């Protein structure tokens, strides 16, 4: 459940968004609009509180993104639970690279403006990007029985694949797939498709700032790049 409240401090309207149960792929702009926020004109301060024990999960996209908030709005994200992004997909066969893991918080406020931004990770809380997918295994085979006067095993042996690399844990790159193995026969019989395994995917960002100046106070665990 996501609960909302709004409070007035003098002439400044502050919107407080409390996330109190497990959820996924939240957009701060959308949550604020439910309380009357209009990005084109509103300069309300927005505070997002993620309760202890609660996980905001990314399944196929960012667990938490700001949306295009008014750049004059102050934004504070207080993490007492977890923000966890998704793991990249593996490269599969024939050396396809693994895909990148997901960013945990994606900042996309409008350009310019006077807003100040902060992310506070409390003790025991986690802000974790998705790990990269493992690279696909390489493939090697042998040519048909006779090739350029050489005796080879044949027909061409497909399926001599290396293993797919391991996906990275939170904040870690995936590993490269292993090379395929030669099917056998005389020197010169080898065919590669290619032989080397695919590269592992990069880990996502714990916080992708997109050029914003964001104060990060960390008393918990951040896995992944902040930048």
Describe, in short, the structure shown.
By secondary structure, this protein is mainly β.
List the helices and strands and how they pair.
Layout lengths: L1 E8 L2 E8 L3 E2 L1 E2 H6 L11 E6 L4 E3 L6 E2 L9 E5 L2 E3 L20 E2 L10 E5 L4 E3 L11 E3 L3 E2 L2 E2 L38 E3 L12 E4 L5 E5 L2 E3 L1 E2 L1
Parallel strand pairs: 2-5, 3-6, 4-7, 5-8, 6-9, 7-10, 8-11, 9-12, 10-17, 11-18, 12-19, 17-20
Antiparallel strand pairs: 1-2, 13-16, 14-15
Strand order of the largest sheet: 1-2-5-8-11-18
SS class = mainly beta
Portion of residues within helices: under 10%
User: What's the story with the biggest beta sheet?
Assistant: 6 strands, mixed
Helix and strand element order = EEEEHEEEEEEEEEEEEEEEE
pLDDT below 50 for ≥5 consecutive residues: which ranges?
1-11
Beta-strand percentage range = 25-35%
Q: If you compute it from the alpha carbons, what radius of gyration comes out, rounded to the nearest whole angstrom?
A: 24 Å
Mean pLDDT: 87
Number of helices: 1
C-alpha termini separation: 30 Å
C-alpha geometry? elongated
What's the total count of β strands? 20
